[in-house]
Backbone:
């Protein structure tokens, strides 16, 4: 078990490094791309700046210079907004977009490649957690009881100090991806259909539901957010060139 966790964590760390590297490259390229866009917007920015009149108050120094700077920023707010948006906001959004896409893809690959490990260990951990609660709580409705305990899994994972933080983070991200609430309801419904109060069958039910969730929810998605950001970025540039 420890060796398997160690191997899994090493793979996860490599994936994390890959995600950070590629996201950082996206940030850098996004910054360079937007510098080019800003350069092409220079005529429009120059036109806006030409409307700014002289600032005699700036000669007073001190407070006068500060007030003059504030006035300049207020007068040239379109340019300030353009520079902030293109030089900082959009590159950061590219970073987030690529990071989100790669995180989903790497998580999907990680889970798919270690599907047996995931389903075996999570189902075993969950069933053992629920078994421990059976004797300490009064159970009127087994379906609701199982569902409520499964929904507590993210909190339970945080308390698993014998598991590496990287592993706990991956499992929590995985649970968000498969929609833990829906998963819990599905397991509870399957258990009730068995028509038994034998908690020993729960592990197999959880494993079956996990396999279904992995096949259904862990398929790689397109980098939609990245495309939206790029469209907005270039679209704003075109609007500036057309209307200013």
Residues:
């Amino acid at each position: 078990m420890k060796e398997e966790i160690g191997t899994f964590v090493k793979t996860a760390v490599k994936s994390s490094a890959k995600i950070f590297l590629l996201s950082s490259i996206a940030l850098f390229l996004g910054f360079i791309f937007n510098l080019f866009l800003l350069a092409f917007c220079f005529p429009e920015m120059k036109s806006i700046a030409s409307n700014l009149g002289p600032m005699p108050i700036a000669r007073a120094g001190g407070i006068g210079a500060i007030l003059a700077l504030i006035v300049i920023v207020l007068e040239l707010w379109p340019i300030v907004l353009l520079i902030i948006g293109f030089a900082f906001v959009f590159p950061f959004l590219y970073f987030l977009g690529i990071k989100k896409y790669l995180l989903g893809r790497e998580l999907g690959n990680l889970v798919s490649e270690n599907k047996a490990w995931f389903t075996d260990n999570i189902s075993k951990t969950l069933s053992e957690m629920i078994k421990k609660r059976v004797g300490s709580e009064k159970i009127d409705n087994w379906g609701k009881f199982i569902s409520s305990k499964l929904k507590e899994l993210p909190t339970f994972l945080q308390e698993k100090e014998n598991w590496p933080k990287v592993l706990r983070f991956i499992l929590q991200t995985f649970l968000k991806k498969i929609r833990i609430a829906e998963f819990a309801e599905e397991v509870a419904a399957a258990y009730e259909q068995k028509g038994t109060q034998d908690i020993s069958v729960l592990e197999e039910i959880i494993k079956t539901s996990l396999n279904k969730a992995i096949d259904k929810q862990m398929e790689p998605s397109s980098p939609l957010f990245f495309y939206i950001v790029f469209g907005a970025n270039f679209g704003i540039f075109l609007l500036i060139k057309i209307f200013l």
